[in-house]
Amino acid sequence: MTGKFIVIEGLEGAGKTTAIRTVATILNQNNICDLQFTREPGGTPIAEALRNIIKNGLDHEPLTDKAELLMLYAARIQLIDNVIKPALKAGRWVIGDRHDLSTQAYQGGGRQLDKVFIETLKTQVLGDFKPDLTLYLDVEPQIGLMRARSRGELDRIEQQSLPFFERIRDRYLALAQQDSTIAVIDATKSIDDVTMQIQTILTSWLATQVITL
Ligand code: T5A
């Protein structure tokens, strides 16, 4: 594979949309212009249908936590096999709005699903596939949710209680400590400051990469 896979992670309202634009601009400035953008859950017709159910539910039927987890992995493998891997193989760089770290944080930390159950699914579905770099935008849930709320109605997951989001943040931070491919960005700062942090991290990471253009 010649392309690289960069993922932006964080709680709702962390600023992922802005960060994705920043990453794309920096890559362009480094002559990396053939970019593929993805979002999770979603990014293929089947994965987008699953996204809709995960975010909005369907016909008031309770969606169990385990079914939610299975749908997330179904959507993810559709996206990996049909979009991400072909793009990387063709030399395109992929910028992902969320990936598996979201599942570890939301379903593992937030929903408190069994660690072994998630780990087994992850191994079976993803194998050793993982992003080359993850930028985790760290924000206190109160701030992120306030920003998300200012945009309008909250979806099924966004309506969860504050402790749910505090557990997610704790899990994100714990996982980031264990994995050198995850960089933590202080996303409580201004948009300009966050942009600078991304610029610093991405530029020094790019300098360590063998890039085939
Ligand atoms: N999910 C997803 C799981 O539970 N498990 C999984 O495995 C996966 C993949 C996806 C939902 O699914 C869950 C997580 C989510 O609940 P989504 O819409 O893709 O939903 O994700 P959200 O996090 O909900 O997306 P948001 O659009 O809410 O978050 P963003 O993109 O981080 O926020 P953004 O960039 O739009 O910013 C929100 C507002 O804040 C402002 C922006 O201008 C915007 O108005 N803002 C700032 N304001 C001040 N200072 C800053 N630094 C700012 N940065 C942004």
Number of domains: 1
CATH topology: Rossmann fold
Strand order of the largest sheet: 2-3-1-4-5
Write the CATH homologous superfamily. P-loop containing nucleotide triphosphate hydrolases
Q: Which regions have little confidence, pLDDT < 50, spanning 5+ residues?
A: none
Could you characterize what this model shows?
With 213 residues, the chain is α/β, with parallel strands linked by helices. The protein has one domain (5-37, 92-212): P-loop containing nucleotide triphosphate hydrolases (Rossmann fold). The protein is 55% helix and 13% strand. The chain contains eight helices and five strands; from the N terminus they run E-H-E-H-H-E-H-H-E-H-H-E-H. It has helices at residues 16-29, 45-56, 65-89, 100-110, 115-126, 141-149, 162-178, 191-207; strands at residues 5-10, 35-39, 93-97, 133-138, 182-186. Strands 2-3-1-4-5 form a five-stranded parallel β-sheet, sandwiched between helices. Helix 1 (16-29) crosses helix 8 (191-207), helix 2 (45-56) packs antiparallel against helix 3 and helix 3 runs parallel beside helix 5 (115-126). The N and C termini lie close together (12 Å). The relative contact order is 0.21. It binds P1-(5'-adenosyl)P5-(5'-thymidyl)pentaphosphate.
Describe the structure using short key phrases.
213 residues, 5-stranded parallel beta sheet, binds P1-(5'-adenosyl)P5-(5'-thymidyl)pentaphosphate, 55% helix, alpha/beta
